[in-house]
């Protein structure tokens, strides 16, 4: 940790606010990613630290499993909702999955769970398998090196497009390309250390024009889809999330309204497509990086599924190494590095006073590499999730890459299914390796609200 950091209140007794740097600008910087910077600071200040920009509320960062659990489980009522985005006042937050709380949150989560259940019990498996086929075709188009991160983003975007809009796009269709580019930009730009969170007026300045344009593009895209759906809506035959939303609108309910539909749809889309795309990117990058592990996964594929049969999601439970590999991806490159919460009452965490009105960052990135809980946390080691005979997948209570508490991830099964089916379908057909003509990727990742892999090139060689 740099010597410029000095503690404000480390020894001020149990009711002191958490310690932190006297100069809050140290949370900014370009040499390291936001996840690395905040994690480095936790090594210096401990599991709970804070900073305050002039004119902005106190921000507290929680950095290990114990304090995150103390907040989200032990004091859940103090942290009901996320820190809202700069568009809060312009477009409102009611109806948003991310920002609703109390009864609204219960109703919206129920609605989303219902939609996901219908989809998961119905067409999800078929649609992911079909998309995996399209992805395999794109990987094997010719023998030249391919850049997979873009394709994986589009494939994951297509699953969400099928779920929400009822259709998939070709990988060269500008509609899905522009939609995913806009979501990518929003996820990259809105990392929690972006000054716009502290000073929302920045949003109206020149520097945030692209952010605004991306938000407006996404809004208009989804609103056009809703308009289209309304023109031939059949309540007896809902085909996707938009139809389910339209069906949910009733005269006596003031939460589900046509004009709010795009909010909910946008949250379902963006909470899923980008984290899942990042999970897929890391999976392919790590498969290329660790050829010995690729071989082990292939051996499980051959033993349990074979190279011809369509992989089924249930196969995962007979493939412990593959399962452990996927768990380790979500630990090693914690795809959603942070959660955020607004603090609505005074609360004590780890003995420190956190006043009402503060903001809290849940540093999942740091929690997943806490050296007290993870042996060699910076190494990629799927075997940490395996029993010593390699046959049983271990659950670690402190493994929380999908969050905990009443705002945890709603798409855990879906995320796992996409990673498993895309990964196994690809490995049935191809041996994957980094292109020897390009420098190997750093695998540090690019951190926004999601940690994505840097672009890289691979060679997909057909099996047999
Ligand atoms: C690898 C893929 C994924 C990862 C790593 C991931 C991770 C997370 C995490 C860490 C949170 C909680 C953040 C917080 O504490 O504030 C979250 C929330 C959420 N996730 Fe996921 N997610 C993934 C895929 C999905 C998918 C496929 C869906 C499907 C719809 C989904 C839907 C959601 C929703 C709706 C929330 C917000 C819940 C709420 O605020 O009530 N996620 N996700």
UniProtKB/TrEMBL annotation:
Region Disordered: start-end pairs: 1-20
Keyword Membrane assigned: yes
Molecular function via GO: heme binding; iron ion binding; oxidoreductase activity, acting on paired donors, with incorporation or reduction of molecular oxygen, reduced flavin or flavoprotein as one donor, and incorporation of one atom of oxygen; steroid hydroxylase activity
InterPro entries: Cyt_P450, Cyt_P450_E_grp-I, Cyt_P450_sf, Cytochrome_P450_fam2
SUPFAM superfamilies: Cytochrome P450 (SSF48264)
Key words, A-Z: Endoplasmic reticulum, Heme, Iron, Membrane, Metal-binding, Microsome, Monooxygenase, Oxidoreductase
Bilayer topology term: Peripheral membrane protein
PANTHER family (alphabetical): CYTOCHROME P450 2U1 (PTHR24300:SF397), CYTOCHROME P450 508A4-RELATED (PTHR24300)
GO BP term (any one): organic acid metabolic process
Family (UniProt): Belongs to the cytochrome P450 family.
Cofactor(s) in the UniProt record: heme
Keyword flag Transferase: no
Extent of Polar residues compositional bias: 1-11
Annotated protein name in UniProt: Putative cytochrome P450 2J2-like
Major localisation: endoplasmic reticulum
GO cellular component, one term: endoplasmic reticulum membrane
Positions contributing to heme binding: 409
Subcellular location field: Endoplasmic reticulum membrane; Microsome membrane
């Amino acid at each position: 940790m740099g010597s410029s950091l000095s503690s404000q209140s480390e020894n001020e007794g149990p009711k002191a606010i958490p310690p932190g740097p006297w100069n809050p600008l140290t949370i900014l910087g370009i040499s390291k990613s936001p996840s690395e910077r905040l994690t480095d600071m936790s090594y210096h200040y401990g599991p709970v630290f804070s900073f305050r920009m002039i004119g902005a509320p106190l921000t507290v960062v929680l950095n290990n499993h114990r304090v995150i659990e103390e907040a989200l489980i032990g004091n859940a009522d103090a942290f009901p909702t996320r820190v809202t985005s700069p568009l809060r006042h312009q477009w409102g937050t009611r109806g948003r999955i991310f920002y609703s709380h109390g009864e609204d949150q219960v109703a919206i989560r129920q609605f989303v769970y219902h939609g996901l259940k219908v989809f998961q019990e119905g067409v999800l498996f078929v649609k992911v398998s079909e998309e995996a086929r399209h992805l395999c075709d794109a990987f094997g188009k010719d023998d030249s090196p391919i850049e997979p991160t873009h394709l994986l983003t589009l494939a994951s975007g297509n699953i969400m497009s099928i779920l929400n809009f009822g259709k998939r796009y070709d990988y060269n269709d500008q509609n899905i390309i522009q939609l995913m580019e806009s979501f990518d930009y929003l996820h990259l730009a809105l990392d929690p250390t972006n000054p716009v969170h502290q000073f929302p007026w920045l949003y109206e300045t020149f520097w945030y024009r692209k952010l605004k344009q991306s938000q407006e593009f996404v809004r208009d895209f989804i609103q056009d889809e809703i308009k289209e759906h309304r023109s031939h809506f059949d309540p007896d035959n809902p085909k996707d999330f938009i139809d389910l939303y339209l069906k949910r609108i009733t005269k006596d309910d003031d939460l589900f309204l046509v004009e709010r539909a795009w909010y909910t749809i946008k949250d379902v889309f963006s909470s899923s497509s980008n984290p899942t795309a990042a999970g897929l990117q890391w999976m392919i990058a790590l498969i290329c990086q660790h050829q010995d592990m690729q071989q082990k996964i292939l051996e499980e594929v051959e033993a349990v599924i074979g190279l011809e049969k369509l992989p089924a999601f249930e196969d995962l439970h007979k493939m412990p190494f593959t399962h452990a590999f996927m768990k380790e991806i979500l630990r090693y490159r914690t795809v959603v590095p942070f959660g955020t919460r607004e603090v609505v009452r005074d609360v004590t965490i780890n003995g420190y006073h956190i006043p009402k009105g503060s903001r809290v960052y849940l540093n999942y990135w740091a929690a997943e590499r806490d050296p007290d809980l993870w042996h060699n946390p910076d190494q990629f080691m799927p075997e940490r999730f395996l029993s010593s005979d390699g046959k049983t997948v271990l659950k670690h209570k402190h493994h929380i890459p999908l969050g905990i508490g009443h705002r945890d991830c709603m798409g855990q099964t879906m995320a796992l299914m996409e990673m498993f089916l895309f990964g196994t379908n690809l490995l049935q057909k191809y041996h994957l390796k980094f292109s020897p003509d390009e420098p190997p990727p750093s695998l540090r990742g690019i951190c926004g609200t999601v940690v994505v892999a840097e672009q890289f090139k691979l060679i997909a060689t057909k099996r047999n």
